[in-house]
Amino acid sequence: MTIQDIKDELQEVKYYYGHKAMFDRALSTVSKNKVLEKVARYNDLVQDAPAQLFGLYVAIYTENNTQLAVALDWGLSEGYIKNLNRKLCEYLLEKINKKEGKQS
User: Are 1 and 104 in contact (CB under 8 A)?
Assistant: First the structure.
């Protein structure tokens, strides 16, 4: 798995949370979508993250905000938030590699 894979999957997590009501409705008519497995996986991985990275995950991916919106809300630069997001992706990759028994 690469950083780009993490970013792609996080975009799916973000899409899920942005359209959660639709996914919830679909459970009664279609079935459970595979994205729910990714959501559960990333929610589990981020539980032990440092507070700032955890907060960033919640703000961007579960609350469906842009990096710019989080930067403005937190009173930080967009560049700083982008750097934090990179650190979040690196953190997640490291956790995934540890779970899979690989070195980062």
Answer: no
How deeply is 60 buried, as exposed, middle or buried, from its count of CB atoms within 10 A (0-12, 13-18, 19+)?
buried
Single pTM value for the model: 0.89
Token pair 């490291």 is found at: 94
Q: How confident is the model at residue 104 (pLDDT cuts 50, 70, 90)?
A: very low
| CB within 8 Å of 62: residues ≥ 6 apart | 13, 17
* Burial class (CB within 10 angstroms; exposed 0-12, middle 13-18, buried 19+) of 81: buried
**Cβ contacts of 25 within 8 Å, gap of 6 or more:** none
What is the token pair recorded at 82? 């982008």
